[in-house]
Amino acid sequence: MQDDNLPVSAYFGDMKSLFSLVLVFTAMQLHAQQLPPVFGANTKAHTPQLTRTYLTPQRIVWESGAAHAQHLLAQRNGQADLSNRNMCTLEKTGSGILLDFGREIHGGLQLITGIYKGNKPVKVRIRFGESVSEAMSDIGGEKNATNDHAMRDMIVEVPWLGSLEVGNTGFRFVRIDLVEENASLPLKEVNAIFVYRDLPYKGSFHCSDTLLNKIWLTGAYTVHLNMQDYLWDGIKRDRLVWVGDLHPEVSTISAVFGEQDVVTKSLDLARDITPLPQYMNGIGAYSMWWVLLHRDWYLHTGNIRYLREQSTYLKGLLELLISKIGPDNREKLDGGSMRFLDWPSSGNEPAIHAGLHAMMVMTLNAGAELSKVLGDAATARQCTEAVARLRQHVPDPNRSKQAAALLALSGLAPAEKMNREVIEVDSMRRYSTFFGYYMLQAKAKAGDYPGALRDIRRYWGGMLDLGATTFWEDFNMDWIPNAARIDEPVPADMKDVHGDYGAHCYIGLRHSLCHGWASGPTAWLTEHVLGIKVTAPGCKVIHVTPHLGDLAFAEGTFPTPYGIVSVKHTKLPDGKVRSTVKGPKEVKIIVAK
């Protein structure tokens, strides 16, 4: 991409005609057009479909030595000027201000300065934070703030009477401190630069419980923020394509946005950087999630051309997985593979085996389906025979809700038994934001819709109660007692829910508070409360079976390749549900009686 700070002549030579310059800039601004030939064939690295907009701070959380800070809350024009009116001034070295932009966003910061003595740049320290605690922290220490994946704590120089844009991370709060010696700094504006894909929310959910409505939308927004150059897992940390983490994210995308190229782009990246017999992200389960993702994506999109592009790799991967079944009919994923389900289940080796064994059943069943679609009868048969062998061994979940959920979903164990004896035990202890989705799916398979709705309200609702505007990398119900909200300074006698907790790779403030793998309730509420389930490739057939539980009504929309399906369910006085369903003529909709 071109460097916008260089003169046009650096790219186009000495152009003296104003008309020529106009033509050049017009060509550069045409959306989705090929760059002028002078750029050459190899200069266009990538063109993500991202939008930038500027956001004004919503409130001042803290300030020290900042005069007239309230001026930063006014919407302005983004332009430095000579008037020097209505400025916030950091009056001396060490003065600072903490701003709240109202909700988590992805992007950076714009600072616009006024006139001050010296006519030279001034140094400031900028700290981004997903919580007030993080924005007020120093790198390292007991709270473990980091600059991993994205720079969120830095010292920069701002220009005299000018503008600076800095930062590329996930945040809601920004602290700005004057670190220049013997200086003061007038700030006309401090705006967040919101970088996102400008996509319509084609899917929707609305019911008689406002908390569930908020949870559905928060999950959708969490994934939306992570739809950047690729489909990331986190916008502050884990700005990477983790294939297992994609599964709940793609389920949410299907329910909210419909077909999006960021999905296929991310799946193809994982394939292309992982030659067989390697495992994606170094995790055997994540290569299995890749197969399950393709099964689900084909079911939603019906894109056979794209599926055929995967045929060679898919066949090789399925053969590799089949080779990892031992003579005792147990999974034996090895070869450098990290044996992993999710972080909270780490260390429980019997549970990990049970979960991986169940995933092998699920994956090879999906592989058989896809191989039949691709006309590969031999591979389909190999998958079916391998599943028959795997079903001869039924592992014990060892009290793991993660393993119990997968055993239920794979059909290796009765869903009712796994729900009653494992998932329901100790309420929501040992839940997790990633595998919570599969626990909810297992509860649905067991017919425990009231229990699933209860868990969604208490677990995901618990994050909202603490000030979350996006869902987190992990959450533990034991963190709630005496915890301060993330959008306020932490009192001395309360717990810092962001900085005091966490484990494994997310200790303290390294913990991501916007993690796409936590969006499961959004997809679940669409599938099970609205009752929308795709049963034929390309959404050609959709079954609608609502489960309202204690809700008086639920309504919403669902995107298909042919248009929007709309449903509305109302509970009648006798307890029966009246459903109204509309959809494109290309989609056969079967409503449960």
TrEMBL record:
Q: Which domain of life does this protein belong to?
A: Bacteria
Q: Pinpoint the Alpha-L-rhamnosidase six-hairpin glycosidase domain residues.
A: 202-392
Q: Which residues form the signal peptide?
A: none
Entries under SUPFAM superfamilies matching the protein: Six-hairpin glycosidases
Biological process annotations from GO: carbohydrate metabolic process
InterPro entries in alphabetical order: 6-hairpin_glycosidase_sf, 6hp_glycosidase-like_sf, Bac_rhamnosid6H, Bac_rhamnosid_C
Q: Which residue numbers delimit the Alpha-L-rhamnosidase C-terminal domain?
A: 531-591
Q: What is this protein called?
A: Alpha-L-rhamnosidase
The species this protein was found in? Chitinophaga cymbidii
Q: What is the lineage of its organism?
A: Bacteria, Pseudomonadati, Bacteroidota, Chitinophagia, Chitinophagales
